[in-house]
Design a protein that fits this description.
The complex is a heterodimer.
Chain A (H helix, E strand, L loop, with lengths): L12 H19 L5 E2 H11 L9 H10 L3 E6 L7 E6 L1 H30 L6
Antiparallel strand pairs in A: 1-3, 2-3
Chain B lengths: L1 H11 L5 H20 L6 H11 L2 H19 L3 H12 L3 H29 L4 E3 L9 E3 L17 H27 L7
Antiparallel strand pairs in B: 1-2
Classes of the chains: A mainly alpha, B mainly alpha.
């Protein structure tokens, strides 16, 4: 009986994962555009506006690298919660990089959307 | 359960320098505490859910190690690491080969200056910058036949500092040049 079962259609998971990974850096920089946030706040912002994050823990290593590259600054702040939190904010270089990436993304997405229009409409199909 | 998770994470992150590792762990700990504070009395199930959402320890550790390796290569000043990476680049074509040769010549000349700087105090009469005689106009080291090579030595007591400086300058210059080429042509990003 098992032999007769149709093979499941494989979702293009790998492509989606790659795409998410590629956009995560931009999304993190963008989330910090209007002020200081700590890791969990950044995660909440990303959750609200996108489904970019797969495992929450993977955001922290990226924050570490962006700081290492001089795009972010960070500081430990004591909170009422009883434990300190590490706040991040954009440096001028980070702001510049975010602007550059956002512009590129905008042009790129506009062109691709244009190309995708007929695919999504399902019209104009030739026999 | 949380302690177990963090001790596993710490052992998996052993490749990172200690202060960085401690800070990363403290940050992740703050994340877990914040997540749990949303509920007054966290149960075991809630703890597990928070940790699962965070990700498996080996997965997180792997991400930290990858990010650390990336930024290390990008910021590296180590001639050995840069030479090794340009060697890999050299194997992929002419462009890489040219950069590798430039790196090699730059570092070898710098090394030559260091050697001269060290030899001067040991053999003061055989090492120098000569104005005339057989070694005119060149940094020379003559050890074979004559105890004193012909010609006037120009730098005297400044010889060691000057060659040291030239060596350092060349080394720094070569490093900057290679890093410029690496970022400019970006060939190495995937390869390091």
């Amino acid at each position: 009986m098992v032999l007769l079962r149709k093979p499941k259609p494989e979702p293009d998971e790998k492509w989606e994962v790659q795409l998410r990974k590629g956009c995560l850096e931009l999304a993190i920089l963008a989330s910090l555009w209007s002020g200081k946030l700590y890791g969990l706040e950044i995660l909440r912002m990303l959750e609200e506006s996108s489904d970019l994050v797969l495992a929450e823990g993977t955001v922290y290593p990226i924050l570490g690298r962006l700081k290492e590259e001089g795009l972010l600054q960070s500081e430990w702040v004591e909170a009422e919660a009883g434990h300190p939190r590490k706040y991040y904010w954009l440096t001028p270089a980070g702001r510049q990089k975010a602007t550059m990436m956002a512009r590129f993304w905008n042009g790129f997405a506009a062109n691709l959307n244009h190309l995708l229009k007929p695919v999504l409409n399902g019209k104009g199909k030739t026999q | 359960m949380i302690e177990l998770y963090f001790s596993e994470l710490e052992s998996k992150m052993a490749g990172l320098p200690k202060p960085a590792r401690q800070e990363f762990l403290q940050e992740l700990r703050a994340h877990v505490l914040d997540r749990l504070q949303q509920t007054a009395e966290p149960t075991e199930t809630q703890c597990r859910a928070v940790l699962v959402a965070l990700g498996a320890p080996e997965e997180i550790a792997r991400h930290y190690l990858i990010e650390a390796a990336l930024s290390r290569a990008r910021r590296s000043n180590s001639p050995l690491l840069l030479l090794r990476s340009t060697l890999r680049w050299a194997l992929t074509g002419m462009q890489g080969f040219a950069v590798f040769m430039a790196a090699l010549v730059g570092y070898m000349t710098a090394l030559g200056f260091y050697v001269l700087a060290i030899l001067k105090p040991i053999f003061p009469h055989n090492v120098g910058l000569y104005a005339d005689g057989p070694y005119a106009g060149s940094f020379g080291f003559n050890f074979a036949y004559m105890p004193h090579p012909h010609g006037r030595e120009l730098l005297g007591p400044y010889f060691t500092p000057v060659t040291m400086f030239l060596g350092l300058f060349l080394m720094q210059g070569t490093t900057l040049l290679i890093r410029f080429f690496i970022t400019r042509f970006g060939k190495l990003k995937q390869k390091i």
